[in-house]
């Protein structure tokens, strides 16, 4: 079942996948004057989340290939992500059971919690010796688009649940020291973990948004 | 000897070890594949070798662990279901499946880990093949050789697309039945895709496979869809061969009948006219050529009086008339080819020749005097001197032919109208050429006048239209005989003085005229008295005398005074400067001196624009 908005999704995602293309701000004139429909908001959000996940996957693959491949990091580095404290649904049934409002708040929390890690990731990678351009550019892009996605999500929340109080609670990342460790192995492990978590969380957000879109906009009939 | 034995023993031992080792290693079960078809369950498979090696591996077990919350529990649990996925497999149902939680599984035998693997479920997602493939014909090419089809399918049943849990992309492959290599199309997100340009006479196979977007691998291919395109070629060919004889016969008979009726109920003339329509005859609105034939000049006058400033003075003594030399004695003179040729001495026959404009067919044929204008009015080679010389002779001849040619009456359906038209040509007398004709100019004036007077009826016989075939340097016009020339009448009436203007008679329908002619004419400003009359009405008609110059240049009297003493070759045709009906025409005299050679030689066709350039 292909929703009509999927054409827009496809078009925009095609544009986005030309890496350097970024979607325009959703409401240049300010949120107050925006008259975008909820369906369009969700479409944009899904496109953004998909884009961010693609970038994260690629960044992780490149990092792994370049620095940590075949060194068994995966077994060592399946550590906790700072967002693991959030009660995120882990499978379809759980995703279906969570209610809409909580679901949206959850997504917003995850996005908020990644603001700071992404910022530091960019800073640290930029300051690296022989900063890998591919990884750096993707990190920069992910940071930018995550901010946009957060704005979009806040818009959606304000439309769907206008009464929601602004809840600023989100998991805090404290992995900066590990990124700056002198020991290369530890440092690489920290990066690996961070990128792995980023990939996973971006995938979660992408999946959750697709679920919500089908649930809210298309009434479970995408 | 001991050494040899030792070596042999070692070799045997080693080989036996090797054998045993390989057997053992080959018998160890390994994970072959873990797969989740819908992201809700997954299963893992391993190899199971029958082992009858020395080691007894015992029952194989699978243990798994997954990281819960923040702890890597390292608590291995045994596989919950060894059965559902078949032999040597472990099936994890949805309660055991978590998406973003990594799993590790290990295979043990006799307590010893045989194989281990870690993954997350998204990595092992491999959707089921799409179902319900079908195709529809989109269109067939015009040649009937190629066709486009639209292939549609559905997502596998167990993939939850509706809730958005899975987003699939598909890859279609197709090939001809007897080919070995599949053609691939780019991944698409929708469940239908057009396949273009399949050959109609071939059978194709189509298959589709799906993959979760952004992660996992492609699943298995769907069942092959066989596409047999309808063979339309044969039908079209058959239709081509079917020749509709019956229709042809019916319509043929019908057409013949129609034609027969046409023939029967219409006169021959009409058919001839239908098949070969005559060239439109120049005529003045409201004037009946037959009227002119009858010679009732009074009526003609009244009719022409409708047009502005038409003075019914056919018989006025104007210079046009003066210079006309009638050659009444030669009835068949016009049949001898160009009159100008006759007028001129033989060596000048060609010199004058190609003046004027190639006027095509218009006018001439309408006069039904095709032989009149056999004189070459091509202005290809215009020789100033000779042409000028030729002018008077030819002009004379033409004038003769045109105006006072009683003998032409029999031949031409249109009577000569205006003797006076001949006069301008003869004004060329000033050319100073020792030609018999020019010298006759002065006399011819009288003669012409005389003739004119003596032949009042001749006017009636004069053609209404006369084609100006030549221009004297004096600006007089030599008109071709036997031509319908409504302006000819006015020409005749013109005072001789007005003839001076070189008339570039650019033919009627085509506005082409010889540049040389145009140029020649301009400076030739015969001392034609300019009359104030203008005949704008002539402009709209198809007359031989060109209408371009029918301007209101009433102020051309100056040129009229100009005596064309220069060696200006006079073209056959001059544009009419003023039509002074009934006195005649004032023709434009080109102010240019002898045109450039190339100009002259380029004479053939001159467009109106060029003419306007030439003309002052």
Overview of this structure, please?
The complex is a heterodimer of chains A (222) and B (616). Chain A has 222 residues and is mainly α. Chain A is built from nine helices and no strands. The N and C termini of chain A lie close together (5 Å). Chain B has 616 residues and is α+β, with helices and mostly antiparallel strands. Among the domains of chain B are: 95 residues, Sandwich (Immunoglobulin-like); 98 residues, Immunoglobulin-like, CATH 2.60.40.10. Helices cover 29% and strands 19% of the residues of chain B. Chain B contains 19 helices and 18 strands. In chain B, the strands form six sheets. In chain B, strands 4-3-6-7 form a four-stranded antiparallel sheet, with no helix packed on it. Chain B is rod-shaped. The N and C termini of chain B lie far apart (135 Å). About 35% of the residues of chain B have low confidence. The interface between A and B is medium-sized, with 35 and 30 residues.
